[in-house]
Design brief:
Layout (H helix, E strand, L loop, with lengths): L2 E5 L1 E4 L4 E7 L1 H6 L2 E6 L6 E6 L5 E3 L7 E6 L4 E6 L8 E7 L2 E2 L3 E6 L1
Parallel strand pairs: 2-11
Antiparallel strand pairs: 1-3, 3-8, 4-5, 4-9, 5-6, 7-8, 9-10, 9-11
């Protein structure tokens, strides 16, 4: 398994959750790491990414609420989601280059 996602779950609106993605060493070092999400009935969309040097990019709707970090010692990236909204409900997928992890479900109740 090259990408292993964990975390997610159920939270009330306004609350916080985190998802993590562990990658094999070569993938982690060479690639931007990113999170995408897919809500029911919608296309998969970009959420956030981080370069090997730690530069982050966020989709506009999460920019002030989500934070993506990178732990080189653990080959892991963590997406901290704060002030969550029901529209954040989706299956979240980790991506590195051409590799995709299995999705993890995030549900935000109103």
């Amino acid at each position: 398994v090259q990408l292993q996602a964990s975390g997610g779950g159920l939270v009330q609106a306004g609350g916080s959750l985190r998802t993590s993605c562990a990658a094999s060493g070569s993938i982690f070092v060479r690639n931007d790491m990113a999170w995408y999400r897919q809500a029911p009935g919608k296309e998969r969309e970009f959420v956030a990414s981080i370069t090997p040097r730690g530069r982050t990019t966020y989709e506009d709707s999460v920019k002030e609420r989500f934070s993506l970090s990178r732990d080189s010692g653990k080959n892991t990236v963590t997406l901290l989601m704060d002030r969550m909204k029901p529209e954040d409900t989706a299956v979240y997928y980790c991506r590195a280059g051409p590799c995709w992890g299995r999705g993890t479900l995030v549900t935000v109740s109103s």
